[in-house]
Specification:
0% strand, mainly alpha
Length: 161
């Protein structure tokens, strides 16, 4: 506490003996001891109260930091979830678009096969659809565009619709 050595305590004791006398000195020493004990307890209580307040302030600061971190993480997770949902929607719409295109192409192929089946035989062509003229084609046979093929077109040029 204070930087007081043994010699200073002896000097204080001698002065107290001269001031209070030998009869009152034990009562004064006892009262002084009680007051010093109360002072030490008061100082210890103040220190512990200050320590608790500092810990409480640190805990509140830590709590706000944790809450901010949680909110930041939650915002990041929500953003990622929204991005994944948008990507899923885009992929889903692209898949639906491709699926619709495949259905359209499938319908076209089915109509071509149906057209070939109604004319009696299928004509194999190499290259583009314009090259679809086979040997031995019947007069009533039609190409992919619905134009007659075979003997009817041998002497004339093909006319596009």
């Amino acid at each position: 506490m204070f930087d007081i050595g043994f010699s200073e305590f002896v000097l204080i004791g001698v002065i107290a003996l001269l001031v209070f006398g030998p009869e009152d000195l034990p009562r004064v020493a006892r009262t002084t001891g009680h007051l010093l004990g109360k002072l030490r307890r008061y100082v210890a209580d103040v220190k512990s109260e200050i320590s608790r307040e500092m810990e409480e302030a640190d805990l509140k600061r830590l709590q706000t930091q944790v809450q901010d971190s949680v909110q930041s993480i939650q915002a990041t997770v929500n953003e990622q979830a929204r991005l994944l949902e948008d990507e899923f929607r885009q992929t889903s719409s692209a898949f639906e678009s491709v699926n619709a295109s495949l259905h359209e192409e499938s319908a076209k192929v089915e109509s071509v096969f149906a057209l070939g089946a109604t004319s009696g035989s299928l004509v194999e062509a190499e290259g583009t659809p314009e090259a679809v003229v086979g040997e031995g084609a019947h007069e009533n046979q039609l190409d992919l565009f619905g134009q007659p093929v075979g003997d009817a077109l041998q002497g004339s040029e093909r006319k596009e619709p």
